[in-house]
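Most newcomers find our protein records easier to grasp once they have seen one. A learned vocabulary of local backbone shapes supplies the integers on the structure line. An example says more than a description, so a record of this kind follows:
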Amino acid sequence: MSMPMRELGRTGLRVSILSQGGAAFGEQYGSVTLEQARATVQRGIDAGINLIDTSPYYGMTRSESVLGEILAGGLRDRVLICTKAGRYGVDQFDFSAKRITTSLDESLQRLRTDHVDILIAHDIEFADNFEQVFTETADALHRLKQTGKCRFIGMSGYPLGILRQAVERCSLDVVISYAHCTLQSTRLIHDLLPVADAHGVGILNGSPLSLGLLTQQGPPPWHPAPAALKAAAQKASEFCRGNGIDLSYLGMQFCLAEHRVASTITGTAQVPELEVNLRAVGQVPDLKLVEGVKSIFREAGFLDYAWESGRWRDSETGAPSVV
């Protein structure tokens, strides 16, 4: 089947419901050769994927450089590029107008292009000064849009409260929310989508498997979820395995079927892994299995749970009353 497309807010862009995440190209999840990355990008484009998301943070600029080399081979005109600014390391953030501006110029050089289609202020909940993000950073994004170096602008983060404020105050085109439209949490749909729709802002859904939480192998050691949530996820994985399906595959089916989200971003630099995600496109998830997984998280007290991230605090964040 052909890759389904959806409107991205009021941008006029039609994006593939599955997007290619660039973190893996920065070797965030293990070593990747240039040829492996090239084959994955080519396969994705051939399958109809038309949006690639990256950041200078991914692999300390490696992701952008690798993509720049790959796309320079004649593929640039076949994809929309989304990159970011503001985050440059685990604890390195700079949302000043000057740094946002120079960051884009540096990204354009690495990506070997004269513009990106979307520029995102990256993980804004880690800012030292949120008011600066809503004013100075937003103004810098708008000025860059006026220059033509980026066609559309947005912000990303984990806490939905800060994204709602960004949507309401910053005249954005796009927001990237992650780990909030998954089998474990659908807060994006009821807590962010109504505000985004009211302002004509398109939503990109990152981390559909919740940073590896919703996988058979389980999350990486650094995952911020509490131990009890990880245990519930393992129980959900065993439940799925007992019903003949991998939890991660059901999770991809679930996210890709959510028509209210423009596109789901998932990162892989290996063709076999991409093929699994492509097979989930257009499939209707087994609703009984979806409810079974949700029931496991609900009974453990972790359905729609959100962990703390960055410096932002709002009523959506906090541990449930479980031990």
Observations:
- The first strand starts at residue 5 and ends at 7.
- The chain has one domain: 5-210+256-285.
- The domain at 5-210+256-285 is CATH 3.20.20.100 (TIM Barrel).
- DSSP finds ten helices and twelve strands in the chain.
